[in-house]
């Protein structure tokens, strides 16, 4: 009796928590196929015409391209900078190491809105025009602490001896970094890369405040929403969700799973 | 290739701690040297200084006659085989072994072929395309050796490389290391705390303790003619018998012990001739104590009771309680054939020429 009750309860909890997380997304995806003008119940039938409209919309498509470019470039920059910072702090005795670590990770605790405002002030003051470049800079600012933290956490003393061995065999510091340390840390570097790719891909506030004529996809969706609900927004939202899911699956399959093997 | 090594007054301090104190050592080209001592004696620090990973606080390191004191490891004619192997986990064995050649700008085909040769030498050619995590500990060890030798160093430094292997594999690797060293002629400096390993592979052994050299010589000399109480004790079991020099005449010395007076020649005093009245410590190896005289040169050391004993295959190891000094328990390795029982009282004999007499200072260690 008791075990039956607890089984019922745990199944109920299981269903509740996943519905809570995924019901909105499921509804969004469902009504992207709505055969009608409004993405609200009742569901009238399946059509792909909204997806066709999305792909025909040149503004949306260029925003999608912008988003991909900004996300991948800013993630590469954030990873390179994060790796260099982690390498320096883990391998060399620098003044105030602990303080520098805190300083590097501190931006994680600041809200994106504040960071965007700060950057906006700086760009105005220095006369930098708002563009996709400034959005990219903003995304490097928010993703660098993350990349640093992930890569720094994976640097241990065991790798130190391996780097010594490379140096002993004639490698200079740059060769050690590129040929030995970076490949050894590749799982965590890729994890950092795909995480910041996902964050940059989804990010709205910074992209909204720091862009002007060319915009990223979340900003374009925002302006679409202002003209009212439309199954087309559901369709583009579903596409965004699909891409994020693919990134997540890639991350899980190739990086987190491969990790155990490389450590042994 | 091979080179000699000279250390001149090398000192290394870490804050208040003196890890190495005025170490001077000459190593000839092509020698297999073992640095032997307990953990914390400074042997690994000394190896790091020779390899260039640490700079000495003072003193000089000369390799092949050139001053290498402040030359970085990448430019030294040395390579190191690390205790934890330190193989590159993301590279195949071939790329691991070829890495040093790649840094020396050797072409891909040539360095691959050279790497295969060295993998063949250590018996792993068939695994050249595998990664290190697919290998056993002993195999990783061999790859580390091949990688260190592939760049043709003048000097190979081995930092307790066999420590993680089981006993049987360790014996086998010792034999292989020794054979490879003889074949290629490179100078090897090997660090260990295992005195049996040291005797198995070394041309010469450097016994270290508390940052100083306690003895340097061939394994047999270090064992039979130790220059210090520490070296005598570290190289194997030994009985210490306190005594005092009471007379000297014609290179013969009279030493008073609890067992009565002993007549010793000058050769017994390996740390230098004593003065009359000096305290001294007699060192006698367990296998030098015998129950019956088969040789006229042996004299009776004492009469003693067998307290306990065990058969060890090559010898019968027992503890003896001397009648004249019951507190001074002796250890003896009696011949296999002796039929001793607990409680037997026997005459314990010794050849005075076997006895080593040393200044008694470091008895506590």
Structural class of chain A: mainly alpha
CATH architecture of chain A: Orthogonal Bundle
How many domain modules of chain A? 1
* Average predicted confidence as pLDDT of chain B: 87
Number of domains of chain B: 2
List how many beta strands of chain A DSSP finds: 0
Order of helices and strands of chain B: EEEHEEEHHHEHEHEEHHEEEEEEEEE
Radius of gyration of chain B: 24 Å
Shape designation of chain A: globular
Q: Indicate the CATH topology of chain A.
A: MetI-like fold
CATH level-1 class of chain A? Mainly Alpha
Q: Which class of secondary structure composition applies to the elements of chain B?
A: alpha+beta
Number of DSSP helices of chain B? Answer: 8
Assigned CATH architecture of the largest domain in chain B: 3-Layer(aba) Sandwich
Largest sheet of chain B: 6 strands, mixed
Comma- or semicolon-separated keywords:
heterodimer; A: 264 residues; mainly alpha; MetI-like fold; 12 helices; B: 365 residues; alpha+beta; Rossmann fold; OB fold (Dihydrolipoamide Acetyltransferase, E2P); 2 domains; six-stranded mixed β-sheet; five-stranded antiparallel β-sheet; 8 helices; 19 strands; elongated
């Amino acid at each position: 009796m008791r075990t039956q009750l607890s089984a019922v309860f745990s199944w109920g909890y299981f269903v509740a928590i996943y519905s809570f997380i995924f019901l909105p997304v499921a509804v969004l995806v469902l009504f992207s196929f709505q055969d009608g003008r409004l993405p609200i119940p009742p569901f009238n039938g399946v059509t792909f015409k909204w997806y066709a409209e999305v792909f025909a919309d040149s503004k949306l498509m260029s925003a999608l391209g912008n988003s991909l470019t900004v996300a991948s470039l800013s993630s590469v920059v954030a990873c390179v900078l994060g790796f260099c910072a982690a390498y320096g702090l883990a391998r060399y005795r620098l003044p105030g190491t602990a303080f520098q670590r805190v300083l590097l990770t501190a931006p994680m605790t600041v809200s994106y809105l504040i960071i965007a405002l700060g950057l906006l002030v700086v760009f105005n003051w220095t006369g930098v025009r708002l563009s996709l470049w400034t959005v990219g800079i903003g995304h490097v600012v928010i993703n660098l602490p993350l990349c640093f933290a992930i890569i720094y956490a994976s640097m241990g003393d065991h790798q130190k001896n391996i780097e010594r061995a490379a140096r002993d065999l004639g490698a200079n510091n740059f060769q050690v970094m590129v040929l030995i340390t970076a490949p050894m840390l590749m799982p965590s570097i890729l994890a950092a890369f795909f995480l910041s790719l996902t964050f940059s891909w989804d990010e709205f506030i910074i992209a909204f405040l720091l862009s002007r004529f060319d915009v990223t996809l979340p900003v374009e969706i925002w302006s679409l929403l202002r003209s009212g609900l439309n199954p087309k927004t559901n369709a583009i939202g579903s596409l965004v969700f699909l891409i994020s899911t693919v990134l997540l699956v890639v991350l899980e399959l190739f990086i987190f799973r491969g990790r155990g093997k490389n450590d042994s | 290739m091979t080179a000699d090594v000279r250390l001149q007054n090398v000192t290394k301090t870490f804050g208040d701690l003196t890890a190495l104190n005025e170490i001077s050592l000459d190593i000839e080209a092509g020698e297999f040297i073992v640095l032997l001592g307990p953990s914390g004696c400074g042997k690994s620090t000394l190896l790091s200084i020779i390899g260039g990973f640490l700079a000495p606080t003072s003193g000089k390191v000369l390799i092949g006659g050139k001053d290498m004191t402040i030359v970085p490891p990448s430019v030294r004619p040395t390579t190191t085989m690390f205790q934890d192997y330190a193989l590159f986990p993301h590279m195949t064995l071939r790329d691991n072994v070829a890495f040093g050649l790649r840094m020396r700008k050797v072409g891909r085909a040539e360095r691959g072929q050279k790497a295969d040769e060295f993998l063949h030498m250590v018996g792993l050619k068939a695994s050249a395309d595998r990664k290190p995590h697919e290998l056993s500990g002993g195999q990783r060890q061999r790859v580390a050796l091949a990688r260190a030798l592939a760049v043709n160093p003048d000097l190979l430094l081995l930092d307790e490389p066999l420590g993680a292997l089981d006993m049987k594999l360790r014996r086998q690797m010792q034999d292989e290391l020794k054979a490879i060293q003889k074949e290629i002629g490179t100078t090897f400096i090997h660090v260990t705390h295992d005195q049996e390993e040291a005797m198995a592979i070394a041309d010469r052994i450097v016994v270290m303790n508390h940052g100083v050299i306690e003895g340097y010589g061939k394994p047999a000399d270090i064992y039979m003619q130790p220059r210090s109480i520490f070296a005598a004790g570290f190289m194997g079991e030994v009985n210490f018998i306190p005594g005092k020099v009471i007379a000297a005449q014609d290179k013969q010395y009279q030493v008073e012990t609890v067992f009565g007076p002993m007549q010793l020649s000058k050769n017994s005093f390996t740390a230098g001739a004593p003065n009359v009245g000096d305290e001294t410590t007699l060192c006698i190896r367990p296998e030098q104590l015998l129950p019956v005289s088969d040789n006229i040169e042996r004299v009776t050391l004492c009469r003693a009771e067998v307290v306990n004993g065990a058969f060890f295959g090559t010898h019968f190891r027992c503890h003896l309680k001397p009648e004249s000094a019951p507190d001074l328990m002796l250890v003896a390795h009696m011949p296999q054939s002796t039929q001793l029982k607990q409680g037997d009282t026997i005459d314990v004999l010794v050849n005075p020429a076997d006895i080593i007499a040393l200044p008694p200072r470091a008895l506590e260690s």
